[in-house]
Amino acid sequence: MRTTTSSRADVLRAQADLAERRLRSPSRVANSARNARAEVDRRRRWEPARDALWSFIEPHLGEGARVAVLGAGNGDDLPLERIARRAGSVTLVDLDAKAARSARRRLPWRLRRRVEIAAHDVTGGVADRIVVAAVLGEAPDKVTGPEAPLPGAPYDLAIGDLLYSQLLYPALLDLGVGERRRAAFLRRYAPLLTRSTVARLHASAPLVVHVHDPLAWWQGHEQPADLGHILRLAEREDIEPALSAVARGLGPVESDPRAALRSFGIAPGATALWRWPFAEGVDYLTCATLAGGA
Ligand SMILES: C[S@@+](CC[C@H](N)C(=O)[O-])C[C@H]1O[C@@H](n2cnc3c(N)ncnc32)[C@H](O)[C@@H]1O
Predict the structure, then answer these.
(1) 161 lines ligand 1 (CB under 6 A)
(2) In which order are the strands placed within the sheet that holds 66-70?
(3) pLDDT tens over the chain, length 294 residues
(4) What is the residue extent of each domain of the chain?
(5) Nearest 10 degrees: Cα torsion 263, 254, 99, 107
(6) Nearest C-alpha to atom 11 of ligand 1 is from which residue?
(7) Nearest to 74 by CA among 108, 47, 97, 51
(8) How far does the centroid of ligand 1 lie from the alpha carbon of residue 7, in Å?
(9) Considering only CA atoms, which of 118, 128, 134 is closest in space to residue 25?
(10) Would you say the CB of residue 65 lies under 6 angstroms from ligand 1?
């Protein structure tokens, strides 16, 4: 009986502790929870996505270059070993330093020394303020995202790695913000955070690779765009028609770094699209865009 009472008290204490941490740093708690939940076979499943990202960045990665990866997380979609072999230094920037440290631990020890971890919120706490305001049903005051370079800048190459759609959505979801208010907050504030993130990457390096996930497919999810069709166009390097097909789909357009580039007058350069086999029965489309340079 005593055991039952005390374990119930433990559960309630743990729930109260989680609720408090969620309100104190909603984005970090929500993103770290997702990183911690990564399934064991994910690295093997994501191998084609790592290969595709390597093919995309390899021609732009000079011997001994200084590289930053924002949103490195567990490093499962990131060809980190290949990058570290070529680069002089790699800084993994993420809210979740624990995930980035585990990615570094997987490297051979000789390469580990080239990799640094920077625990950092690219929104400078602005995403958290927006999320707390959404929970309270208020409008956040004075919302402007930071535009300063990332920690450790300048770099030769900066990569924004699949974090744009994660700046607000996971924390809004985990804090129980209802669907309509969530959609309204995403429409209103995600473009601003995406622009600030894009600005910070471009303030950090002359060459930036933006990797984002414009569309997803799973059973029961309404998705008018056809993944096979988009991939066939992309394989033939018919990128403009492929992007038009992407635009006809349903996805988080408010977190599109290409729209942010356009708003800054930066022309998107080389672009590639590939399938990201996210989980059993769940596919995402990955879009990589090179920007900057001459
Ligand atoms: C979907 S994951 C990207 C996949 C990741 N590269 C991997 O292979 O595991 C998004 C990453 O962005 C990070 N992130 C989200 N919001 C962030 C923020 N405001 N500042 C820095 N990192 C953030 C998350 O912690 C997470 O590691």
Answers:
(1) yes
(2) 115-119, 89-94, 66-70, 157-161, 207-218, 282-292, 271-279
(3) 455 667 888 777 777 666 666 678 999 999 999 999 988 899 999 999 999 999 999 999 999 999 999 999 999 999 999 999 999 999 999 999 999 999 999 999 999 999 999 999 999 999 999 999 999 999 998 889 999 999 999 999 999 999 999 999 999 999 999 999 999 999 999 999 999 999 999 999 999 999 999 999 999 999 999 999 999 999 999 999 999 999 999 999 999 999 999 999 999 999 999 999 999 999 999 999 999 965
(4) 2-292
(5) -50
(6) 71
(7) 97
(8) 34
(9) 128
(10) no
- Pick the atom of ligand 1 nearest to 123's CA: 19
Q: State how far the Cα of 123 lies from the Cα of 118, in Å rounded to an integer.
A: 14
For ligand 1, whether the C-beta of 145 sits within 6 Å is: no
CA of 5 to the centre of ligand 1 (A): 39
Distance, CA 99 to ligand 1 centroid (Å)? 9
Query: Left (φ > 0), alpha (ψ -120 to 50) or beta: where does 271 sit?
Result: beta
Is the distance from the beta carbon of residue 72 to the nearest atom of ligand 1 less than 6 Å? yes
Domain 2-292 annotated CATH 3.40.50.150: yes
Distance CA 231, CA 235 (A): 6
> Do 281 and 221 form a contact (C-beta atoms < 8 A)?
no
Which atom of ligand 1 lies closest to the CA of 77? 8
Q: Which two tokens stand for residue 53?
A: 């990202």
